[in-house]
Structure formats: C-alpha cells, structure tokens
Design a protein that fits this description.
By secondary structure, this protein is α/β, with parallel strands linked by helices. It is built from 15 helices and 13 strands.
Length: about 350
Amino acid sequence: MPYRNAFPPASAAGSRVGPLDGLDVIEVFGPQSCDIGRAAVSFAGMLAARMGARVKRVQPEGGDPMRNWAPLMADGSSAASRFLLDSKQLVDSPAEQEPGSYLLTDDAGVAEQWGNLRKVLVRSSFESDRRAQSELTIQAVSGLLDIVGEAGRPPLALPGYQMAYATGLTAFSALLALHCSQLFAGKSQSAQVAASEVATWLNWKHGMSSVSGVRETGVNRQEEWEVVRCRDGFVAAIFRDRDMPALARLMRSTRLEAEEFKVLKVRANHLGELRSIIADALVDRSRDEIVAEAQSLGLPFSAVLPPREVIDDPQMHYREFFERDGGVLSPRLPVLWNGYPLTQAVREYSWRTL
C-alpha cells in the first residue's frame, strides 16, 4: 500500500484535549529503587504523559542512571531513556506535593512518606526478603523461561524490558483506577503492583496446562505451529483442524489430506512427517508468495519481520506509527483518541484548548 497521510494535520487536531488532560503525576525514586522498577515506573508515567497528563520526574541525586542504558544512539544518548523520559518535565529536587497529584514510585520508603493515598508502588515481588530482581529473574520465577527456548539448551530470555513494560502497563491501569475512584466516588486510594505477579499472570495458561495433565508443556512440548525457513527468510505457519484442506493445497501435498492429519489428537503422532512436508514445500518459495497464497486460502500465516522491516513496512507508514523527535525514531501510542494519534506534533499544539 503506498504511503499517504492517514490522519488530519496536527493543526486540525491541536484543538483536541488529551484524554488525561488535568491529571498530575510525579515520578520519584529512592535508595530502594532498582532497574526493573525504574523502567516500569517510567513506562507508566510515559503512557500518562503521552495521553496528556502533566508528569514531573524528580531526578535522582547524582544523575539518572537510565541516561546510560543501552542501546545507545549515534550521539551517545540512550534510546530507552529518550523513549521513556522525553515526554515529561524533569525537575532536580522534590517539590512540595501539589494538591490532587499522584505518586509513581518503586521505593517503599518514598511511598510511605507520601502525604496521601493517591500513589502506586511498583515492586519486584511481594516476597518478604525483598531480594534483588531483574528482567531475567522475573522471567525465571514466573515460569516464563520454561517455555522460551529449545530442548537441550538453556532457556532464552526475552530481550529488552518486556517484564518491566508489562508491569508499567499494569501500574498505569492502577493509576487510572485510582483516578476514577477519586473522580467518581471522591475516595483516595493506593495501589501496589509486583513484577513477579504480572509475569505469572500473563503466563497463567502455561501454568494451568502444566498441572492439568492435558498436554506436555515447557521447552520440550510438541507443537505443530512453527517458524519455517523459506527462500528469503522465515514464515510463521499457523493452522487448525479446519484448515487442513487449505494447508494441503498450500503445501501441494495430497498426503496432508490423509486421515492421520485431519485432527490434532491424531496429527500429534505424526508431527515429524508434518514438519518435513511443510519445510520441503516452503524452502524454495518467497515470504511474500507464501503469505499471499496462505491469505487467499484463509490461513493466518505471517512473514517473520526483523525490526528494520517493521519500521519500513508500508502499513506502518500509512498508520504513521513511527515518529521522529529530534532525530530519534520512536513508536507513537498504539491507540487513536477520537480518531487522532497522540503524537508529539499534536502535543505541541494546545492540549489545554477546549
């Protein structure tokens, strides 16, 4: 699809007010703060700021360690820091608490000293020993590492700040709930979020499967869905029982029309042959060719795109999903407000004009 401007110009959207206009949030860190907590709090605050809230971030003494977090841009700045911090007002010292403001922190001492109940405390876990946690350990204690990787190899951790961002999204949801309680019931309340619980909650289906005895779980599980090599990369091959006739057509294989491939319970006994048929059928075909034919047959196949291709994807251009701020490319929020993207360009116009 050729690129075209998908949304009204910023000047047209400038008269619109952000959904969280009027909400005041303060991010504060302390001696008990840790990397996963900093990232989670920063992500929650970033979401609030990009939706129109006024977010102040108190800079820690000695500087913000997130300024040095990898990956680094060509100018030496941290991409993670730019993504999480640039939408906020940075202040050097804690100002006097403003009426109606909400606290975001991952330090229990800071939360305890806060003057009212309007606060969200992010913790690594609720364990009494308060041992240090990280992205890797949170994935480990939640059971997530047990399903990521290959048999015979150590589990592979998800890259980046996946657990922190999921925890930050949960903290943001808690912040909105507190704000709704204040607005509609006149009640000030507080909330706590633990990264270990968020990760376990996200992964609950794996936990339930492992105790139900329904199927084998973990890295040794037998899965028919897989990523398959093709001529110019990889495709994700997804199908269900009802899709087997279409899969047979896509693979040019009458063998897949046999009784032993019609339903999963029986097909599971022939996974080696199934994988071999799919691999042989796709290895010399291009991603685009495979995906186009699969879609025409109603099969939810997809090309496996590296990050560079995601950024250059015509649909992403059409949706104006990536934006540049001072030369740094970052994604806008994956939501439209009254049909408009909440971008930096829109924020530079009058958020406060009704």
